[in-house]
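DM from R.C. (forwarded with permission)

"hey, sorry to bug you on a friday — could you get me a structure for this? deadline for the figure draft is monday and I only need the backbone to look sensible"
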Amino acid sequence: MTIFSTVGLFIALSLLTALLLAVIAIKPWLRAPRTHSKPLDNQLLDINVAVFRERLAELKTDKDNGIIDDHHYQNQKLELERQLLDAQREVAPMVTPGIKSRLIIVVWVPVLAAMAYLMVGDRTPVFELWASEDKVGQVADDLLTGKIDQPPAWAIEDGNQLISAMQTNVYRHAYDYNRWMRLSELFLSLEATDSALEALSRAYRLSPDNEEIAITYAQINFFANKGQLDENSRRVLETVLAKNPQHEGAQMLMAMGEARANNFDQAQGWIKRLRDSISAKPGDHTQALSSLDELSANVTMQQQQASEGIEVNVKINSSLLPLVKADDVLFVAIRDVNGGPPFAAKRLPITAIKQGEATISLSDLDAMMPGRTLGSARSDKVQLAVIARISHSGTAIAESGDLSGNPVVISADQNQANVEINQQIP
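My reply, with the result:
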């Protein structure tokens, strides 16, 4: 179907819809009575008759009560009849619209409706979308249904057309999880991680029992969060492991996530389970087991570094709790009291704070630069300051409206600090 046929079909359907609505709206006005060649509007006549009857009844009552005599009664009755006849002669006949008037209404209503639609706004994006569907709509459908793995060269001359056609196709088949999965692959190839995660989340909701979709969703979410397991990723992985306890991909993600969260014992436990699972399989798995040994040693080293870090207890003043939003970010950092880049810093979701409090461990694992670590600051006996801030925008630079606390000064050999977030940045 070409763009012209598509536009023609749209215009035809629009005109037909406008015509039907116009006919429905003016049908009562166009309908003419067939009992009269010159029909009269009898509403005023009916009112006059009703008034005549009321006044006649009053006259008769006055006569019966002796208020007026018979002669006066007859004169008043004749006067009322004369007035009624005069009113009937003055009633204007209803004018029936002619065929020309009807045609004008029937033609101009849809024309004006179409003109109004076209003039309300710029329809260029709509026409461009139609052009994309006409050109690469079938290619998009073949890609999303797995009939082809790569689009032909002519279809990717304008990448935006193919992307638009694929997105439109997926929304038309919103309950097909395979299409959402393949759309996420397209976004990943374009490094559009947020859009890929949204497509993967839809695919997972449509097919939560599909292990491939679940692991892909958890993995992309894991790396998008810089190696941290958020609540969604953890829940997805736990669901997979509940059904398949030996799933190696899920076990590896759990091990890496627990290590990143400083839950080193849990991480070592997942590494051991994964190692036992691989060892039990037939064949030579020397390389895989060696990689796991390296990961275990790395976790042990991280645990040693974390033990030499500083534990920061963050508390939010109760008066500021109503100002905390669900998408806020918590920043905790340790720096020189004289300023400069932090020796260690963490950026955490606001969910890390439970009931207004959180405990965060900062060590060389959280160094911003390789040569500027917490260990080097302690060796140089640098006086340190611990700061904590809740950011509404999620940026590392403090902004108006953020919640913060006064820096807490600690010595180089101190291993614990308490920071209260008790003020709002003006």
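R.C.: lifesaver. The two ends are 60 Å apart (CA to CA).
me: no worries. Confidence is low (pLDDT under 50) at residues 34-40.
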